[in-house]
Amino acid sequence: VSLSTQRLPRRRDDVRLDDHEFHSYLVSPELGVAHELNAMARAVWELCDGTTRVDEVVDAICQVFDVEREVAVADVSAVVDQLAAAKLVGWVDVPRGAR
Amino acid sequence: MDGGDVVRQGDRAVLLTDDPAFGEAIASGCERRGVSVAVAGTGQADAGIVILDLEHIGSSTAALPRDGVQRLVAIGDPTRGAGGTHIDAWVSLDARCEELVVAITGGGSGGPPPQDAPRGQQRGLVEMDRGAGEAKLRIVFAEPRRLPRAVFSEALRHDHGFEVTATDGDAAATVLQAQRVRPSAVVAAPSRHDLPQLCERLRALDGAPPTLVFDRGGSEELLLHAIESGAAGYVTGHGGLGGLAEAVHAIANGESVVPPAMLGPLLRRLIERQREAASAMERLVVLTPREREVLALLAEGRDAAGIASVLFISPETARTHLQRVLRKLGVHSRREAVALVATSGLAERLGRMVERNAS
Description:
Chain A has helices at about 40-45, 55-65, 70-85; strands at about 5-10, 15-20, 25-30, 35, 90-95.
């Protein structure tokens, strides 16, 4: 589902990113929970802006880290799906002209 | 303050810096020379001797506490000044650590000389740690300025157990040292322009040591440049010497290193580059094979006459092709067309397309 080029992940506006020395957390006052993020999940969260496709994130990650594309797809998809399941990101449709 | 006073023994010295790694390295180097220096973030000085790291202190020199400060020492470029603050002693980034110690003590003895004073001084080989008899992680540390080069390589050697060969940061000297000592990693604070060359030449060596770019201040632009140049990692001074040492171990183990808070912006920049390249590629495919040849020659720096002579066509025909290329690419000038090819990383792909057409 995450790799769909028809829908783009978009983070909720009311969720706050808190950086601490070794970990980052997403804090949602409305949902009343905090989620711990590792470095990659933190970066993926920042890119859930409603304009960036998941496969673009995967390609960029492959450029930085020496990792097989299949592994990157699995990792990024898992993060986005977990964020979506926790209702921290939603989905928006790709504008028709941009497909 | 009186610059002529010799600081009393026991006076507390504090280094103000936003760069914890440099602070720890300076403190470690001074300690080995008998002078104790504490490190503090900017605006937290409570000491008789205050040392300012002017490259990494923000703009807060004017807000420095004056009460009780006997001696103010600045590390940096004296020609740039310290924002009107009177400095008792300047220490250039090209100074030796001993000069810093003298500046701190005001000419008084800083204590015994370090046990491992710099030895080799031929070009490219500044300091060398020879056969310690145990398996240490061997690195080449490339930094153009003497003071940070000396204190970082000493601290990595003495406090973190690396075997360090330091060079002056020039790509050729760094590659030469890497060839000679076969390090597990190269830590480089090189000038921007020779970073791609350095990474490429290191990758071609036997053992292909990975490059860790050490950017004390931290800059998204330099991070992007480092990754696009093929560096295995990028680290800032914000994690202290421990963070630097950890990053060295990680890249020596084949990992990639990017500061977590900078990874998102880096990926964003890479995605923008991918989009620019895709958009430029879309424009490129509408060119005819002849127009691609013309564009490739233009990107090589040839004018209409030069293009005409290579393609055996008249200059007038070359100009007509150029006009069509500009129109199809949607750019207004030849310079813009060249920039489009260069910034989108299309030069190589364009070259391949032209070669395919020719064969």
